[in-house]
Every structure is written in C-alpha cells, then in structure tokens.
Write a structure and sequence with these properties.
about 250 residues; about 80% helix; about 0% strand
C-alpha cells in the first residue's frame, strides 16, 4: 500500500511541477530577464579590469542558452523537484496516517504540504531569501549555500517541535489552544534562529528594489503553488485509495 501511495505522490508532484512551471514562466521569468539586463548593463561599466574579465569568462562558460534555461531546463527541473517532494510527502503521510494530525486523508495531505512549504521555502527564505541574477558575490556561494542548508535543518526542527508541542498539549488545553501554543513555540524559535544566524547582504546599491521584491514574491508564490497542488492532488488520490474496500485493512496499518 505504501508503494502505491508513493507512486500517487510522485504523480501528484509531476502534475504540480507542470503547473508550477507555468506559474514561474509567466510571473517569474520576466523578472529574471530584467535582472539579466541589469547585470549586462553593470558589466559594461569599467568597474575594474578584474570584474570585466570575470563577466567575460562567465559568458564564455555558459553551456545552455537563456531560452533553454527558461524553457526545457526550468520545466525538467520543476518536474524532478516536485516529483521528489510529492514522493516524500506520500511517505510522511503514510507515517502520520491514523497516528497523528487530521483524521481526514485530504486534510492531512494539505497540512503536510503546507508544512513542507514552511520548511523548504518560507522559513529559510525569511532569513536567506532567493535572489535574482546580478545579486550575490560568486566567491561566497559556498558560504551562502551552507547557511541556507543550516537554516533548512533549523526549520525542520522548528516545525517538528511546534507540531509535537501542539500534539502533547491537546489533551490538556483542547485542540484550538494547543494549536495556538504550538504555533507560538514555533514562532519564538524562528525569531531566535533569525536573530542568531549570520546575515548576508550582497545586493548592489543601484539594484532595483521593485525588481527584487517582484522576483522574491514570484519565487515564493511558485513554491506555494507547487506545494498546494501536491497536497490537494495527493489528498484526493489517498482518499480514493483509502475508500477502496480491498485497501481499507492495509490503510489502517500504513
């Protein structure tokens, strides 16, 4: 049964990846094009000989064209990532089903998908938001990647702790109050983590604030769309699988 749920999760992820690609292609790619135009403008300024040489090297090292990157490249990347996230959601759903969380198959899937959005995108992005081209020093990419994955691990700890706190307090405070307490615990931990983690700010002073805002908004919206579609589709698939008479016995033990 878990194998069938895993397949359903990956199918939901593939469909979500196609929808997320459409969203990103319409709302996100125009912001990337604007950022690339800005990068090309500043690259033609005689900043330093070393800086000009660096941009020439980057142009020479480009393997795929911009059209390929924004088309087939983006589509394949979104599908692979969404399928992986859909499979992971299915496994976590199987672990939580009838053990914790909402009793409804669809509500549990949607709750887990929103938790996935918080862990993979929203919480790390609050401290280290996504940046368009022309933002960021290439020499610090390793350091920034390490910080992002550290924040990702912290986000997992925050969500798990908040969920466990709400589950533990439910018998004492009731469902609503326990959920509020769990959310307060998570918000407190997130605030502390954002204060303690190092800050990175490599945005050029002349970079457009409007472009930066629109790029980050489209990036977060694309991720939210992907996770919502995965949760809704997989919830429907899981509910249909649970309602089949032949699978009801196995479902109680997933």
């Amino acid at each position: 049964m878990t194998g069938k749920l895993l397949l359903n999760g990956m199918i939901a992820g593939i469909l979500a990846g196609i929808i997320a690609f459409s969203f990103a292609h319409v709302f996100g790619e125009p912001q990337v094009d604007r950022a690339i135009s800005f990068e090309e403008k500043i690259s033609h300024k005689p900043l330093t000989v070393e800086g000009s040489h660096h941009h020439v090297e980057e142009a020479d090292e480009q393997v795929f064209s911009r059209k390929t990157q924004s088309g087939v490249g983006l589509l394949s990347g979104m599908i692979l990532f969404s399928a992986a996230m859909g499979g992971a959601l299915a496994l976590v759903w199987s672990l939580c089903w009838q053990r914790t969380g909402p009793r409804s198959a669809r509500a549990l899937a949607l709750s887990l998908s929103l938790a996935g959005f918080l862990i993979m995108s929203m919480m790390p992005g609050l401290k280290y938001p996504p940046n368009p081209p022309a933002v960021g020093d290439p020499s610090t990419i390793g350091y920034r990647t390490a910080l992002y994955f550290s924040m990702l691990l912290v986000s997992i700890l925050i969500v798990v702790t908040a969920a466990w706190s709400a589950h533990y307090l439910r018998s004492r405070l009731g469902g609503w109050n326990a959920t509020l307490c769990g959310g307060l615990v998570g918000l407190t931990m997130l605030t502390v983590a954002c204060v303690l983690m190092p800050t990175v700010n490599e945005i050029p002073e002349v970079f457009s604030a409007d472009l930066l805002w629109r790029f980050r908004l489209s990036a977060f919206s694309t991720q939210l769309a992907m996770w919502c579609v995965i949760g809704l589709l997989f919830g429907a698939f899981a509910e249909r699988a649970m309602n089949k008479p032949g699978h009801r016995y196995q479902a109680e033990r997933c």
